[in-house]
Amino acid sequence: MKGFFDYVPGSSYLHRLNPLTKLLLALMICIAAFISANHLFLIMLIVLNLSIGAQAGIFTRSVMLLKGLFKLCIIIFLLQVLFIRDGNVLVKLPLNIFITDGGISSALMVVFRLVTATMPLALMLSITQVNDLSNVLVTKIGIPYPYAFALTTAMRFIPVFANEMTGIIEAQTSRGVQMDTGNIFKKIKLVLPLCVPLLITSVRKIEGSAISAELRGFHLRTKKSCYKKYVVNINDICVIMFSVVIVGSAILVNSVF
């Protein structure tokens, strides 16, 4: 099963960018999402994220990511609507619960910001090799290699653990356990015991990876060990300028509206 953080090979405009430029673009979109308080501007940022996915050839993955966030957004939206009482009352429910226009506006704002801030990083990681990300963090930003290695290794293990969990669930299903139940509480009760074998498998994989890294001279790796050079070309400059424009637009929209 392909995870959201698995690298998708390609030769698109975004694929060829400096990894640091990709991170900067994702960061600036996130900053613009939290700066802006305009619903329409946030919707435009979501469309921008989908456009980025289309340009990089991962539009299907970006749509899947949007669908995955949709379930979480529904829960957050309902909580915001039911517990925020600012504004005019639109609907009065039992147990002294009110739905107000301020609550709906605030709920939409939180949902749009969540989607807008989550999608860019996932999309950029999908078109950036983990080794390139680790190298650029060490050579350009100056992060010590052990910390960069820990970060990128954790990202590598996310899809591995997801696949392991899927295999465990399929094994339980083949034994007659109804894992596809619609009752969320019953499903949690069934999934929680499966965390023990997943934890044991994870510890074994991590231990094996640690031994492998030590045998390959992990403790000798320094900033100068990176042989690949990451230059900034005209394409990177254009994307950096575009990132600045995004943040500037968010500030301008706030001041005008």
Give the key terms.
single chain, 257 residues, mainly alpha, 2 domains, two-stranded antiparallel ribbon, 9 helices, 2 strands
Nutshell version of this structure?
By secondary structure, this protein is mostly helical. It contains 9 helices and 2 strands; from the N terminus they run αααββαααααα. The longest helix has 30 residues.
Low-confidence stretches: none
Task: Please report which band the strand proportion falls in: under 5%, 5-15%, 15-25%, 25-35%, 35-45% or over 45%.
Answer: under 5%
Q: What is the CA-CA span between the terminal residues? A: 44 Å
- The arrangement of helices and strands along the chain is HHHEEHHHHHH
Record the strand order, biggest sheet.
1-2
**Which structural category fits the helices and strands?**
mainly alpha
Q: On the 0-100 scale, what is the average pLDDT?
A: 82
Q: Care to count the β-strands?
A: 2
Q: What is the alpha-carbon Rg in Å?
A: 22 Å
The main β sheet shows up as: 2 strands, antiparallel
- Whole-number count of domains: 2
Shape: flat
Q: Please work out how many helical segments DSSP would assign.
A: 9
> Into which percent range does the helicity of residues fall?
55-70%
